[in-house]
């Protein structure tokens, strides 16, 4: 697999990482638009959220958004050495599998990530940047997918 273009990734992430919660919320709002069936997977204290808005404003979910943005941040930081994150990402995959997340849902997460980057960066989000992010995200999901391989 070709390595994503590190400079394009870093440059675009700099803007996003200034307000991770705001941009992470855009990512998840888009995710729930595209795949509403994911909403019931997020339950805290056995409480079902009545709507995506309800979920997106809960303190527990905001914590999840922060964690997701930190994982992306780690991938950006290690863009030239993603193999250093392999074990961590595989265990993250196992955690997601344990709560009932399907591996296929991660392609929707990828679309939502690109959507968020485009919303944040506007015209500065070039086709080359989109390609670099698609590659990086693909590599992250590949590492996470090991969490679904056997036990």
TrEMBL record:
<keyword id="KW-0813">Transport</keyword>
<dbReference type="GO" id="GO:0005092">
    <property type="term" value="F:GDP-dissociation inhibitor activity"/>
</dbReference>
<dbReference type="GO" id="GO:0071456">
    <property type="term" value="P:cellular response to hypoxia"/>
</dbReference>
<comment type="similarity">
    <text>Belongs to the globin family.</text>
</comment>
<dbReference type="GO" id="GO:0046872">
    <property type="term" value="F:metal ion binding"/>
</dbReference>
<dbReference type="InterPro" id="IPR000971">
    <property type="entry name" value="Globin"/>
</dbReference>
<keyword id="KW-0496">Mitochondrion</keyword>
<dbReference type="GO" id="GO:0098809">
    <property type="term" value="F:nitrite reductase activity"/>
</dbReference>
<feature type="domain" description="Globin">
    <location>
        <begin position="1"/>
        <end position="149"/>
    </location>
</feature>
<dbReference type="GO" id="GO:0005829">
    <property type="term" value="C:cytosol"/>
</dbReference>
<keyword id="KW-0560">Oxidoreductase</keyword>
<dbReference type="GO" id="GO:0005759">
    <property type="term" value="C:mitochondrial matrix"/>
</dbReference>
<protein>
    <recommendedName>
        <fullName>Neuroglobin</fullName>
    </recommendedName>
</protein>
<keyword id="KW-0561">Oxygen transport</keyword>
<dbReference type="GO" id="GO:0005344">
    <property type="term" value="F:oxygen carrier activity"/>
</dbReference>
<keyword id="KW-0349">Heme</keyword>
<dbReference type="InterPro" id="IPR050532">
    <property type="entry name" value="Globin-like_OT"/>
</dbReference>
<keyword id="KW-0408">Iron</keyword>
<dbReference type="InterPro" id="IPR009050">
    <property type="entry name" value="Globin-like_sf"/>
</dbReference>
<dbReference type="GO" id="GO:0020037">
    <property type="term" value="F:heme binding"/>
</dbReference>
<keyword id="KW-0963">Cytoplasm</keyword>
<comment type="function">
    <text>Monomeric globin with a bis-histidyl six-coordinate heme-iron atom through which it can bind dioxygen, carbon monoxide and nitric oxide. Could help transport oxygen and increase its availability to the metabolically active neuronal tissues, though its low quantity in tissues as well as its high affinity for dioxygen, which may limit its oxygen-releasing ability, argue against it. The ferrous/deoxygenated form exhibits a nitrite reductase activity and it could produce nitric oxide which in turn inhibits cellular respiration in response to hypoxia.</text>
</comment>
<keyword id="KW-0479">Metal-binding</keyword>
<dbReference type="Pfam" id="PF00042">
    <property type="entry name" value="Globin"/>
</dbReference>
<comment type="subunit">
    <text>Monomer. Homodimer and homotetramer; disulfide-linked. Mainly monomeric but also detected as part of homodimers and homotetramers. Interacts with 14-3-3 proteins; regulates the phosphorylation of NGB. Could interact (ferrous form) with G-alpha(i) proteins (GTP-bound form).</text>
</comment>
<dbReference type="GO" id="GO:0019825">
    <property type="term" value="F:oxygen binding"/>
</dbReference>
<dbReference type="InterPro" id="IPR012292">
    <property type="entry name" value="Globin/Proto"/>
</dbReference>
